[in-house]
Design a protein that fits this description.
Pfam families: DDE_Tnp_IS1595
Organism: Leptospira weilii str. 2006001855
Shape: elongated
Helix content: 25-40%
Protein name: ISXO2-like transposase domain protein
Number of strands: 8
Radius of gyration: 25 Å
Length: about 375
């Protein structure tokens, strides 16, 4: 799961010693944007957006079989044509940038800023102020980036699944769950799963929560029946690999029918999975599943909690807990997210984290 940095040398020493070619003159639209944003390298981000579209959403000619469209129009960067038959189409159609009216460079600028600022999030308000556009336009631009991130997550999921399948092929933990497995997991990545309430329903703010119908974490994400009983908080399920990728999913509850398919879709069955005691149904599915009791009581009457309630015999879910802390700190900038929008925001955060592990280019996949 390491990233290999590649370096492409210059073609020749002679060509590198020659004076660089003069930059292309800016179009009238680019000059107008340059006056509004003088500190932003607009040509760089324009070319970066084109590269993203060419790599992830290539356009082919409908008249010439397997002919990739590469001919650009200098005055209309959103268009692309066939060099042979002159077929013309939009490079934005049926992509996350479909019908985008903002300049192309703004999309890659949001992409670039989100990557370098991670784990800090880039809010719509920040985008609006930096690019000097309306909040509505900035919000839609962020949605486009979140859609792009959501479309790339299945590739990261497959890479993670294949890497774990190869890493733990034929690996088994001792059948006795009280056996210390520290030496067995010493040089292997820990895989943890856990759930967390990201945004909860305040009792003072909504007049009452479903404290008695729901138990555990879900008690704080639903309104009371007198107020409609709808979900207002967000419950997040996390699957994380130590020093590796992480996947966040918005879930309505912690039932086996909800969490089971998510775990099975991300992790091979022979993966040593570490959780707390909220997953008692995993033992019959994942033979290498281990859990730690966070509510363990101390045998010494002087203390209330046991000292090994977080880590015992090499079993802990601190990988998921650490990602929860990062997620909560980052999402504090949003103040609140509606449950129906939580999947987009969590997919964006997962993509940015996994891009630092695997890379963000098609060549890395």
């Amino acid at each position: 799961m390491s990233i290999t940095n590649t370096f492409t040398p210059f073609a020749s020493t002679k060509s590198s010693s020659q004076s660089p070619s003069p930059p292309k003159p800016l179009t009238s639209a680019q000059l107008k944007e340059k006056r509004k944003n003088p500190a932003i390298n607009i040509p760089f981000f324009t070319e970066l957006t084109k590269k993203i579209l060419n790599d992830f959403y290539p356009k082919y000619c409908i008249n010439c079989p397997d002919k990739l469209l590469t001919k650009e129009i200098s005055t209309q960067p959103e268009l692309i044509r066939c060099e042979k038959c002159r077929y013309l189409t939009s490079r934005l159609s049926y992509t996350p940038l479909h019908h985008m009216k903002l300049p192309l460079w703004m999309f890659s600028y949001v992409f670039y800023e989100s990557m370098i600022q991670h784990p800090k999030v880039v809010t719509s308000t920040e985008i609006s102020k930096r690019l000097k556009i309306s909040y509505k336009g900035a919000s839609l631009l962020k949605k486009r980036f979140q859609l792009f991130a959501s479309q790339q997550l299945p590739k990261y999921k497959k890479l993670t699944y294949d890497a774990l399948d190869q890493e733990f092929k034929g690996f088994t933990l001792p059948p006795d769950e009280n056996t210390d497995i520290t030496h067995l997991m010493e040089n292997r990545p820990y895989v943890s799963a856990d759930t967390m309430v990201l945004f909860s329903a305040s009792e003072r703010a909504n007049g009452g929560r479903k404290r008695y119908r729901h138990g555990g974490s879900t008690a704080s994400i639903y309104l009371s029946e007198s107020l409609g009983g709808r979900q207002v908080g967000t419950l997040v399920h996390t699957i994380g690999v130590k020093k590796g990728p992480v996947f966040f999913n918005s879930v309505p509850n912690q039932k086996a029918n909800t969490l089971g398919p998510i775990i099975k879709d991300h992790l091979p069955l022979h993966t040593p999975l570490m959780t707390d005691e909220g997953y008692p149904w995993l033992w019959g599915i994942y033979s290498n599943h281990r859990s730690v009791n966070h509510s363990a009581r101390s045998k010494d009457i002087r203390y209330r909690w046991a000292k090994d309630r977080w880590s015992k015999n090499g079993v802990h879910n601190q990988v998921a807990e650490a990602n929860h802390r990062v997620l909560k700190s980052a999402f504090a900038s949003y103040y609140y997210i509606r449950p129906e929008n939580s999947t987009r925001y969590l997919n964006e955060f997962s993509f940015l984290k996994n891009a630092q592990v695997f890379g963000a280019g098609c060549a890395d996949w």
